[in-house]
Amino acid sequence: MAQPKYTVYKYVCFKDGSWRYCRAALYANRTIRPGVVTVGGRGEKHPEGNYYLACGGEWIPAGANALTAQRQQHALLSGNALGYELYSGRPVPKAAVVQPQEPVANGRKRVKDEISKYLDDMVASKPAIGSANGDPFACRERLAKFVTEQGIALDPASRR
Q: Which terminus of the chain is more exposed, N or C, with fewer CB under 10 A?
């Protein structure tokens, strides 16, 4: 089952006296522009009205403040019922309750589980950088063994 989508709307009054739900206008960083709605692809200022969250054909009231509406939307999207109750003062609406996913059948594997196993194997099998088999002193030991085998003098005075 897909995650529910919550779109922020504002219920505004037009010049002819009619009321209508219009999508809330957003800044480039995806935050709500307070008092601005999108009508016919253009932004219009409408300081009156309240914000609502649309989900599954239901209108969930979000209040008159744009920031509070956005926080309620984020709380519902993340499944944070406590956060939603904190910002709205109401329990989570029934339209917002996410149904648990059914297990995958017919011998198929979940991609999420397989990715976790793959990454765990990568981390466990990859030794630390610059070491052999995870031993940080193995490089020094190999160097010391190589030097003694080759008969290289490590005395700085003998380098001249």
A: C
Contact yes or no for 7/21 (Cβ under 8 A): no
What is the chain's length? 160
Token pair for 50? 């309240």
Sequence-ordered list of residues with C-beta below 8 angstroms from that of 72, at least 6 positions apart, any chain: 53, 60, 62, 63, 84, 87, 88
Average pLDDT of the residues of the chain: 76
DSSP 8-state assignment for residue 60: E
Stated as kind and residue range, the H or E segment containing 69 is: helix 66-78
pLDDT of residue 22: 95
Neighbours of 78 (CB within 10 A): 10
How many helices and strands, by DSSP H and E, does the chain display? 4, 6
Span 120-131, average pLDDT:
56
Whole-angstrom distance, CA of residue 64 vs CA of residue 126: 54
